[in-house]
Amino acid sequence: MMVAPVPINEKERLAKVAEWCVMHQQHSGELAALVDMARSFFAVPVCLVSIVGECQQWFSAKAGLDLQATPRDVSFCAHTILQAQPLEVLDATCDPRFADNPLVTGEPGIRYYCGAPLLVENRIAIGSFCIIDTVPRPPLDQAQRTMLMAFGEMAMQIIAGMRRNNFHDQATGLFNRLKLECDVAAGLERGQPLTLLAVDIMSAEALSGIIRSLGYNFAHDLTLQAKARIASQLDNGLCLYKISPTRFAVLLEDAENVLPLCQRIVAALQAPAQCHQIPVLLDAGIGIAPISPQGEDRNSLEWMRRAVAAADTARRTAGRHAWYQPEVDAAQRRAFMLLASLSRALHSDDELSLHLQPRIELPSGRCRSAEALLRWQHPVLGEVSPAEFIPLAEKTALMANLSLWVMRAVLRILGCTRGLDFSVSFNVTARDLESAGFMDALLHALQEQAVEPQRVQLELTESVLIEQPEEVQQQLLRARQAGIVIAIDDFGTGYSNWAYLTQIPASIVKLDKSLVHRASSGGREALLVQSLAGLANELGYRVAAEGIETAEQLVRVCAWGCVEAQGYFIARPMPAAAFRAWFDDTQLAGSVA
Ligand code: C2E
Ligand code: MG
Ligand code: MG
């Protein structure tokens, strides 16, 4: 078999294939109708629109064939694209180029082939419109050849129409993301290093807020104003794309003037936009990412993600434009990876577990309660701290499931320690208390499993009141009325606003470990923490101290009037079985401290 020679202008030809966006294209009804029509007209079993890519030929439309693509090596059309006239093969078995071609010797058994090249600018052929028969045929007469060429031209017109529809953002009339992808692919094919600017005019949340309160028309007009302001800063020849509802893009071949351009765009977007007589401040950020013809950029859309990630970072900087930084991105990707694997973890048997850390009573040293702390053994990343994944989960709907998982595990532990004078606390977040769902589930589970509510403590930080104080208060009152104990966690790290705190029906205040540690240095700091503990005591809270790491700290917090203590000096958090052994040992010994 003779593999078709590669055209001398192959690089340019492949750039055209990319530009016309015809590889792996979606199904088109019009093209399908056209190949059906040609099949009937020529009375052949197979008719195809074949696009010849770097390694494959792709059938954009096909009649009478199951295949969607074949390797380029065996493609008849790879020969057709070498010429501007139709290529006709009357009997493939007699043609040395094709006699041992697997498409001839095997399925679909090609004997006759005639393909008209699909020509774009500069008479470059991106593929062919071809008819195929499984028996030899006489040559087409001139009228038939003209007709086949005409079918090819009609196919190109349909493809051009699809490109027009596919390449434009309806709302702004600008080129869209698909066109940007094609332009980048074409640039990289030419070996051209590129620089992409992703210009965010505001966050997606801000846009949906505007749509919610002012409507679609307002958001549309605001976007058009942003478009005009950005476009006014572009030098001749630079094209503006609209790549998402809040995001424009500019593609540069030369990174030299990129920073002055960014500064101009930022300045242009800074003045409030007057839209329907309402002044609106945009919240712009420009991400700058280089795109390299070497490496992975030719085969993936990573470059787009990098620019978009940088734009997000840029919005939080004073200059509002930032180059892509792999370190920042690595943190974001890790966060994304954690969130993406968290829902799987929730359904696996062995990734999540609870550790228990004892809390002892002062001054007796008896342990009557423990804090349940979540542990995650990620299959690839190893142990991930809750201090890392809980704040991430809190931003998503996964938090609700995570809290339910912890709650159920805590109730199982309490179910196994029935009869013991022992309670377990666990941490809940604002999200858990901002609607009735979590409390409904907790109260229901307590009842169903006949666990006394007094054996459950909820730990929450004062920040739970920030968003929806009334709803949170309502849920906490339900808990309190049912007999559940409420503790304010990490006390002393937030605002520690007493008026605020009295809105939480808590009976325990847990002094944060940072306070306990700071007080170790003595002086005014120690006095301050001592007063804080004293005040909490006087207000009727039971005061617990967290993060006790030394005997001195334990003595000190005892002197402050703390009635409970927790920390590595007493015991580290441990799996439930280890905790049970520790508990039995220390109870036998009478006390811990
Ligand atoms: P937290 O609720 O304040 O828990 C106490 C943290 O301090 C735990 O960290 C514990 O291991 C650590 N710790 C205990 N004693 C000492 C000590 O003596 N010295 C020092 N330096 N640290 C000590 P961990 O387990 O890494 O948890 C961190 C935070 O993650 C928790 O702080 C809590 O806010 C959150 N968290 C843990 N599990 C859950 C959970 O199931 N649900 C929710 N919503 N949050 C959780
Ligand atoms: Mg806690
Ligand atoms: Mg704490």
Number of DSSP helices? 21
The major β-sheet equals: 8 strands, mixed, barrel
Low-confidence stretches: none
Oligomer: single chain
Count of the separate structural domains: 3
Bound molecules: ligand C2E, magnesium ion
Radius of gyration: 35 Å
Structural summary, described in words:
- This protein is α/β, with parallel strands linked by helices and 593 residues long.
- It has three domains: 10-167, GAF domain (Beta-Lactamase), CATH 3.30.450; 175-324, Reverse transcriptase/Diguanylate cyclase domain (Alpha-Beta Plaits, 2-Layer Sandwich); 354-377 and 385-589, TIM Barrel (Alpha-Beta Barrel).
- The protein is built from 21 helices and 24 strands.
- The strands form four sheets. It has an eight-stranded mixed beta barrel with strand order 15-16-18-19-20-21-22-23, surrounded by seven helices.
- Helix 7 (204-214) crosses helix 8 (216-231) and helix 13 (398-416) runs parallel beside helix 15.
- The longest helix has 26 residues, at 142-167.
- The radius of gyration is 35 Å and the shape is elongated.
- 38% of the residues are buried.
- The model has no long low-confidence stretch (mean pLDDT 92).
- The structure holds ligand C2E and magnesium ion (MG) (2 copies).
